[in-house]
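Worked example

This section walks through a single chain of length 291. The input is the sequence exactly as stored; nothing has been trimmed or padded.
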Amino acid sequence: MNRKTRAGIVFPGSSVDIESINKSLSELADIADFTVFPADNKHQNPYFSGTDYSRTASLTQAISDHTDILVPVRGGYGSIRLNHPELLAQLEKYPVPISGFSDLTILLELWSKNGFKAYHAPVMNQYPFLNTYSQTAYRHFLAQTKLPSLELVQLGSAPEARLYPVKGGNLTVFASMVGTSVSPSFKDHFVLIEDINEPAYKVDRCLQQLIQGTDLKKASGIIIGDFTNCSGIIENTIIDILYSNSFKIPVFKCHDVGHGSSNFPFEYGGMYKFTGISENRFIMSPEASQK
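Given that input, the structure is written out below as tokens.
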């Protein structure tokens, strides 16, 4: 019998009551042993789960505890304020993957660009609200058995039949990273973007920021994830922006990644194969079934 995954529950961003995630921890207890590394919120900051120092400490303690993976409780805001050099120094001694999404896109990029594994995946306070398919996919991921394939709808040209690295994250957060020490590079990657509660003009603003402030034009393709509760026809907005900026790369729609009830995990920076299964549908499959 395989041993359970040793998962470190960490608090890098916004506040959340540990009691509110007990349902997630209970439902996943058969596949993972969880150790909670709380941040000290003695100043009772109403937004952050603790001071910048204590939230950094929550992560560094979990890294040094020989956990198999770091599992944040929530995104929200705060990842950019952490002590990134301190985190990297600890990772050099104890390499451990991190998972998460939304504001945690910052940490996924920090891990990945420095050679450490990172996974775009649900956080603990999202798990109870996921549909059955996403919960099952997350359980397989957390149990370290396999990563799921993602189904894509083709909106533009088809990619060449080969492996591509894939990055993905929150569009607003990606835009906020431009010009920082974690400014993302998208060259040769397929880039998945998702967001929540943003009108079309803000999606336009953030995408323009990436186009003008990064190497997004050198990406291999774009995947439009779930834009939860975003007003307007977001797919059309994004496609219009891309083609008005002379993008001539494949564009896909993916309904299974984002802030809604469907959020499948995938490796941030991992290699994926794009295979056509019908006239306008593709499967994005991980290079290997084992993490």
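What to look for: The longest helix spans residues 200-213.
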